[in-house]
User: Which sequence fits this backbone?
């Protein structure tokens, strides 16, 4: 079985780095950078770091796991990734990246709920996650690790 590892990356201009895929019907969708890996390729943080180095030629530090989107096909594990090294804002950051894979193009998306919804993220849960936190004033790259949350407790209602 495989999983998809993806990264929320803050570009030097403060925007969210994403892959734009233009569809045949003139629509588009966005994906977070990352790739599909075998679920035994652990730790996932190391696998994602290698994937981002190969895909975008970025040296990154992988941070918190902010979401696991259960897509029904391959679960998508979403991590925060911080770019190491030079974070200068001069010029267009996406022009310094290698060509994007699979007919996509690099795109920086403004971190606002409206821009996130317009980006049409796949899977949909990613867009809802990011826009929801932005709507409440929380930047996606500052979210807490879901592994540090207390376990869910089942609530039982008392019968009357």
Assistant:
């Amino acid at each position: 079985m495989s999983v998809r590892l993806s990264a929320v990356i803050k570009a030097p201009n403060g925007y969210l780095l994403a892959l734009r895929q233009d569809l045949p019907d003139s629509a588009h969708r966005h994906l977070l950078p990352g790739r599909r890996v075998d679920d035994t390729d652990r730790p996932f943080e190391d696998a994602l770091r290698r994937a981002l180095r190969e895909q975008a030629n970025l040296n990154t530090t992988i941070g918190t796991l902010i979401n696991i989107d259960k897509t029904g096909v391959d679960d998508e594990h979403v991590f925060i990734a911080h770019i190491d090294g030079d974070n200068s804002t001069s010029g267009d950051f996406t022009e310094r990246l290698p060509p994007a894979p699979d007919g996509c193009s690099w795109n920086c998306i403004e971190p606002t709920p409206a821009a996130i919804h317009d980006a049409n993220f796949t899977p949909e849960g990613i867009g809802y996650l990011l826009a929801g936190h932005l709507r409440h004033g929380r930047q996606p790259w500052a979210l807490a690790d879901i592994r540090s949350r207390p376990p869910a407790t089942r609530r039982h209602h008392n019968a009357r």
Observations:
- Helices lie at 44-56, 113-119, 124-135.
- The chain has three helices and seven strands.
